[in-house]
Design goal:
CATH architecture of the largest domain: Alpha-Beta Barrel
CATH class of the largest domain: Alpha Beta
Distance between the termini: 9 Å
Number of strands: 14
Number of domains: 2
Radius of gyration: 21 Å
Mean pLDDT: 96
Structural class: alpha/beta
Order of helices and strands: EEEEEHHEHEHEHEHHHEHEHHEHHEE
Helix content: 25-40%
Number of helices: 13
Strand content: 15-25%
Bound molecules: zinc ion
Length: 389
């Protein structure tokens, strides 16, 4: 299919001029972008756009689809997950991971920022049809155990780093799980592991998180107790979680804050002031699944910040589909236009994973994957996506 066009083409940033035609090789590399009609162009209904990028996923939790009830709140959700640790065989988990991988491909996703607490996802990375940025999570709230917690993350990191199938498609970094599950010493170790790397963190996903940092009280203390984590040495800062832990991270890092369900304007300003590269990742369907609430997206827009989109895991979502995430935002924030939403799900997410040299936009020489999206402008209909290249 050498020449393709559509009613509208989005290049990852914005709508392209009417009558734009793309010359594409069989393997998806964009050879040229032509202004004006072309007699040989194949015409697609609806919209063409670059492949979606999922900036936050947990493929290793795919077997937990439908296991945790909806709208329990984050703390009960987190208490439930470990209870199902032994409910599934390795074969069941493997099948669920591979099915989830297929689902990403089917929904037009070309790259994923994937959280790993184990090395379970080594197998699907080898399939080599998606760009992977695996964030190996470090967890440990007891300062005395920081060394041990980091050792475990480092072991996993090494296993991922040793996969040298196609270097450009596989990347990995160590990341802190969440403010309430990573001690100051562990933050420091993560910080110095790879200076300048992208650090991602589950941020302000529940109201309880800030309450814990401000006053050392509330449901987070119950969670830590239920997990037998000793937090006696923790001193509340009197500030929000974000305004506390950003001081533990050096200036050279790029930051990818995930969820941000309870993030305030003051938090956003503090992070944007401290770091040069900051992206705010939204996972709206997971937020609705767990907490029944969405972040203040209009506030993020007013602050003019970078936005990415993730699905979170199948433990807290019914599907792994970036277009479904964008549709949910559109339903709750109808003033946000599709031009901007598609940017968040493509280039915005690619930049957050430092993959903008590979995917996220339609540019000459790039092979970003091309999706056809139908029913985007029909308010009552849920749009659908189909990967065409
Ligand atoms: Zn997550």
């Amino acid at each position: 299919m050498p020449f393709i066009t559509a009613h509208k083409i989005h290049n990852g940033r914005e709508w392209m001029p009417e009558y734009t035609v793309l010359e594409v090789t069989e393997t998806g590399t964009i050879l040229s972008i032509i202004n004006g009609p072309h007699p040989e162009a194949i015409f697609y209904d609806g919209v063409l756009a670059p492949g979606f990028v999922n900036a936050h996923c947990h493929l290793e939790l795919s077997h937990l689809k439908g296991v945790v009830p909806e709208r329990t709140g984050l703390i009960p959700f987190l208490k439930t997950i470990p209870k199902h640790r032994n409910d599934f065989t390795e074969a069941q988990k493997s099948k669920a991971r591979h099915d989830a991988y297929e689902e990403l491909l089917l929904n037009g996703v070309v790259a994923v920022g994937d959280i790993a607490n184990t090395t379970d996802t080594l197998d699907i990375r080898l399939r080599d049809e998606l760009h992977f940025h695996t964030f190996i999570e470090a967890i440990g709230f007891n300062d005395d155990r920081a060394e041990k917690a980091f050792e475990y993350a480092l072991q996993n990191f090494t296993a991922f780093a040793e996969q040298k199938v196609e270097v450009m498609r596989l990347r990995q970094a160590i990341a802190p799980h969440a403010p309430y599950s990573v001690s100051r010493s562990l933050f420091r170790k993560i910080d110095t592991h790879r200076p300048g790397s992208t650090i991602t963190i589950h941020n302000q996903e529940s109201r309880a998180e800030d309450r814990f940092f401000k006053k050392k009280e509330g449901p987070v203390t119950d969670l830590l107790q239920s997990l037998s984590i000793d937090y006696t040495k923790f001193k509340p800062s009197g500030k929000s979680s974000l305004q506390t832990y950003i001081d533990y991270i050096s200036l050279g890092h790029a930051l990818l804050f995930v969820h941000n369900t309870y993030t305030t304007r003051k938090d956003v300003k503090a992070a944007q002031k401290r770091f040069d590269e900051v992206t705010w990742c939204l996972c709206p369907n997971a937020n609705l699944y767990i907490e029944g609430r969405l972040p203040d997206i209009y506030m993020l827009l007013e602050e003019g910040v970078g936005i990415a989109i993730g699905t979170d895991s199948l433990a807290s979502n019914h599907q792994l589909c970036i277009l479904s995430e964008l549709y949910t935002i559109k339903q709750h924030y109808p003033d946000i236009d599709w031009e901007m939403l598609l940017r968040w799900g493509t280039l915005g997410s690619a930049c957050a994973l430092e993959l903008q040299m590979q995917v996220g936009h339609i540019s000459k020489g790039l092979a970003p994957g091309i999706n056809q999206i139908l029913m985007l402008d029909e308010p009552e209909m849920k749009p659908i996506v189909r990967r065409i290249i």
